[in-house]
């Protein structure tokens, strides 16, 4: 049957419900416990024969005649429902059989029991409509040939595939684990602007917009770094921020134009301290994946082994070899223009990048706090930009002025949270762990 035909049948049922005085989309429900709570208290509730009211979506139906079993899922747990004509009565059973479909969200009042197959079940004495669905649930979903359809209709992906949903639950747990760790280590969570008059803090192309109220162009942030450093000038000791960044760049398995990152900064610390903290944090939140100590190797040594200092060679010959958790340290200063020079060097900075499974997960710095050096670095970046490098960083004179008031020695980091979560959930692409990844509209050419 064509989708339009199925929808029309459901619309006809909707009319019948309304004509019978049944609101197919009521604002409230009589739900007394969640399905999970009912399962947790199952034995006592079943023994007492106490009536309870559950609510959830019908995911499947089976049976015939005067007995129908159905699966009820409230988003947290599943239980079997039993609709018997003898219990519901002729009118109630007719309502269920003729007007309630798979995909509808209902409330079920009844008592709990176990079937002969030891299946936890609620025997319905009353069934009410909470949401009449007008489109049918897909019969086949997992392993769709058109994988992009899963991302376009993520709500169905979550509904039909528990494994997908579990990844996003784990995503939330990982983020909370990082937050708890940092707070325990006396970091303060802060928020900085998403709309910025000048983008900075990373080498990337920005999204540009216009603020009508002030009649000025603005940019969606590519990173929060320069604002967080301003807070260090302002006297904060340790700060962190979970931030959505926007970069007008390509889309692939490791990149999405809108992505979640976390940055933290600590006064009177350097990149060695930050590496130690990241190592401990990852070993704490994901001990099965990350075990201390992590490998530490200098960038120059890796490039020497690769036979070239060309950056493109790093991606081609070195990156895929960084499988075990590895800090690559001490980069050329032009690659990390916001980072302190190593003592005694005029071309190498105290910066590191953290890799695991061949994926860059974090950038770590002893932050540059010399305003004269910072101005020169920005000027060099502006020269790169003039020669066609659209990702070169901008001259931010307001930030330099802040540095001139004095920023203490600071250790900082930026972590790609989406990439970290993809790694910890064995996901092959960021699109698997971003709820609504950026995609070309389906009707776009």
Fold and architecture overview:
It is a single chain. Helix content is 34%, strand content 26%. The model has no long low-confidence stretch (mean pLDDT 94). Helix 6 (154-160) packs across helix 7 (162-184), helix 7 crosses helix 9 (271-285) and helix 12 (371-386) runs antiparallel to helix 13 (397-404). It has helices spanning 3-19, 35-40, 42-48, 85-99, 147-152, 154-160, 162-184, 225-233, 271-285, 299-306, 311-318, 371-386, 397-404, 417-424, and strands at 52-64, 67-73, 78-84, 105-114, 120-131, 188-189, 195-196, 208-211, 216-220, 238-246, 258-267, 295-298, 326-332, 348-356, 359-366, 410-416. The chain is elongated. It has two domains: 3-131, Nucleic acid-binding proteins (OB fold (Dihydrolipoamide Acetyltransferase, E2P)), CATH 2.40.50.140; 151-432, BirA Bifunctional Protein, domain 2 (2-Layer Sandwich), CATH 3.30.930.10.
């Amino acid at each position: 049957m064509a989708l339009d035909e199925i929808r029309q049948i459901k619309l006809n049922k909707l009319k019948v419900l309304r004509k019978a005085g049944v609101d197919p989309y009521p604002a409230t429900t009589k739900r007394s416990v969640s399905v999970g709570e009912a399962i947790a208290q199952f034995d006592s509730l079943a023994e007492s024969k106490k009536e309870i009211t559950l609510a959830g979506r019908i995911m499947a139906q089976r049976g015939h005649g005067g007995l129908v079993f159905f699966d009820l899922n409230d988003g947290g747990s599943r239980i079997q429902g039993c609709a018997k004509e003898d219990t519901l009565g002729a009118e109630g059973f007719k309502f269920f059989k003729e007007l309630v479909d798979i995909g509808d969200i209902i409330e079920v009042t009844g008592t709990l029991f176990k079937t002969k197959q030891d299946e936890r079940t609620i025997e319905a004495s009353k069934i009410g409509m909470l949401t009449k669905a007008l489109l049918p649930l897909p019969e086949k979903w997992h392993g769709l040939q058109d994988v992009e359809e899963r991302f376009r209709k993520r709500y169905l992906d979550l509904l039909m595939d528990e494994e997908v949903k579990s990844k996003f639950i784990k995503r939330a747990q990982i983020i909370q684990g990082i937050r708890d760790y940092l707070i325990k280590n006396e970091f303060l969570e802060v928020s900085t602007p998403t709309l910025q008059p000048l983008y900075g803090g990373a080498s990337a192309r920005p999204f540009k917009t216009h603020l009508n109220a002030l009649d000025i162009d603005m940019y969606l942030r590519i990173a929060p770094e320069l604002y967080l450093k301003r807070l260090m000038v302002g006297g904060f000791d340790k700060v962190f921020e979970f931030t959505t960044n926007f970069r007008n760049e390509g889309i692939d398995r490791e990149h999405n134009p809108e992505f979640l990152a976390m940055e933290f900064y600590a006064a009177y610390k350097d990149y060695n301290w930050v590496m130690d903290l990241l190592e401990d944090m990852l070993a704490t939140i994901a001990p099965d994946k990350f075990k201390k100590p992590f490998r530490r190797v200098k960038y120059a040594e890796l490039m020497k082994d690769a036979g070239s200092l060309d950056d493109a060679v790093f991606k081609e010959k070195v990156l895929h070899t960084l499988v075990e958790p590895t800090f690559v340290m001490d980069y050329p200063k032009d690659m990390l223009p916001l980072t302190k020079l190593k003592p005694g060097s005029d071309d190498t900075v105290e910066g590191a990048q953290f890799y695991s499974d061949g994926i860059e997960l974090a950038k770590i710095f002893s932050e540059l706090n010399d305003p004269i050096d910072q101005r020169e670095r920005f000027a060099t970046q502006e020269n790169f930009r003039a020669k066609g490098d659209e990702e070169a960083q901008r001259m931010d004179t307001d930030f330099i002025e802040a540095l001139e008031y004095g920023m203490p020695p600071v250790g900082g980091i930026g972590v790609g949270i989406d990439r970290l979560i993809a790694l910890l959930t064995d996901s092959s692409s960021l699109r698997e762990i971003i709820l609504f990844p950026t995609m070309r509209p389906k009707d776009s050419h």
